Amino acid sequence: MAQVLVIGDDLTGSNATGALYARRGLRAVTVSDPTHVARYAHRVDVLVVNTASRHWSPARAYAAVRAAAAATAGDARLVVKRVDTTLRGNPGSELDAVADALAARAPAGRLRVLAVPAFPDAGRTTVGGLHLVDGVPLTRTAVARDPFDPVRHSRVTAVLGAQSRRTSGELPLDVVECGPGAVAAALRASPAEVVVCDATDNAHLETVARAAAALAAQDGIRWLALDSGPFGAALATELGIRPAVAPVRVLAVVGSVTDRTRDQLARTEATLGARWTELDPDRPDAERALDGLRTAAAAGATVLGVRVRPAAPQAVAAPSGADTAAGILRCLADVARRAVDELRPGGLYASGGDVAAAVTAALGADGFAIDSEVLPLAISGRLVGGPRDGLPFATKGGLIGGPDAARDCLEHLRAAATRTALTPER
Questions:
Q1: Are both 226 and 114 inside the same structural domain?
Q2: Full domain range(s) for residue 297
Q3: Residue 426 lies inside a defined structural domain of this protein
Q4: What is the pLDDT, as a whole number, of residue 230?
Q5: CATH code at 289?
Q6: Which of 15, 158, 273, 328 has the most CB atoms in a 10 Å sphere around its CB?
Q7: What is the pLDDT of residue 419?
Q8: Has residue 423 been placed in a domain?
Q9: What pLDDT, in 10s, does the model give residues 99-156?
Q10: Shared-domain flag, residues 257 and 117
């Protein structure tokens, strides 16, 4: 059975949510016909069921969602009720439907609802219990005049309370910013059946997810997540949900030593569990770097890479010469070639134009087949020609992007490397 069940109310939102799990290496599929559930439930990590119920009456939506949850929740470790990023539709009725279906399976008092509707990357945030679109409360945006589902409240608890029978409470931003321990304590102390959490950036989502995972382990809580996509995916990661099949390994080669690059790589460590081995710029040693990669691989890292160690402070005034830079490039390319042969990664990431060119040449490729642009000056595709023809390959300029740029590239690459055709069983 799928480890994660997501129940959405429209197809585009369901697909977009499935993509967030796929970026984390999980196999996800969306179905809209209930008869297709049995065909795919045992073949994917994340099953997204679209009930297409956003514009239905609350009673009709409740019946459809409860039937879907009762038929599919089964052995899923995490159940998510996906709601619109602007809370349109029937969020309260559909939340009750899923909770009622799960209540029969969870021990008394162990099922709780965590509502985190923020989607910071899309400009949707929650502050002081109010849901905002680009900083504007819902009731002052176009969704308040939606011809099908006008949103009449900006406060999340009010939106849910207009339809839901469950008690609700709020967990403010200042608690979230105190860290997972403070959030866990607040969740444990709250008497509310539904706790709405503030969040304005992805780090807040991860903080709440860590707290919820800790309570699941310590108190045996089974969480029902109500979110617009990213929180559920973060919670799945914190709960230790991993691909049922062996995850694809991604190898990264980074030559830049700028502060921006260091910040980006630190973010990959925090969010992807990336393991980095460092190359000494004064004495580049390919064998030593390979030993670091081998150690990371043996420890189970699925994102591992080599980067150049920044120069010591006293050496800043004496920049490296052309020969030194060429030696570093040759070493990085050699490490990439040998690591690809030995560790068999499913995807390869290179940061910096010179590094990408050196690695491509070392792997004997003719060139690069472009698939898509992950972000400006960050491209995903595949090597063409040579013995590694077809290997997923992503490149990014060393000074390109914000703190999440390397993470986004690696997630995109991992999803491309793990993507397999899901053909119906005969």
A1: yes
A2: 250-418
A3: no
A4: 96
A5: 3.40.980.20
A6: 328
A7: 62
A8: no
A9: 999 987 766 568 999 999 999 999 999 999 999 999 999 999 999 999 988 999 999 9
A10: no
